[in-house]
Amino acid sequence: MDHTIENRSWWNRNWKWALPTGGCLTILIIVFSMIGYGVYKVADKIGDETNVFAFINVISKVQKNPEVIEALGRPISIEDDDYDPEMDNNQMNLEMDLRGKKANGTLRVNALKTDDGWDYKVFNVTVEDTGEVIDLLDDVK
Length: 141
Hints:
Layout: H1 10-49, H2 52-64, H3 66-72, E1 77-78, E2 91-99, E3 104-114, E4 117-127, E5 133-135, H4 137-140
Antiparallel strand pairs: 1-2, 2-3, 3-4, 4-5
């Protein structure tokens, strides 16, 4: 009895399933990459056209600013249900009431949209009790 052991390579033994699987996997990776890129571009375009993200950025800067936290106390809430950040995509004019644990204040923002982002002309918080104006322009430049 002759028991010859065939020493074929891995590729020679498995090409029948490896080739279609690898090809399909490559095609799937390319398709999902293209879909992901498309979603990214759409989200980027939406972000460029609306000032919702700029509005969120403004609120975030106010709530994280140490001077505002010291003057108003935490938590800082916004008391303005009328503002719609999608009303005008090229400018942002805000005057919103802020409520803190220690004091209340007013947020004022005036910004124009440029090709490079937003150009803030006014960005401050006025503390109601003391009249102190906390300038936040440096936080967005």
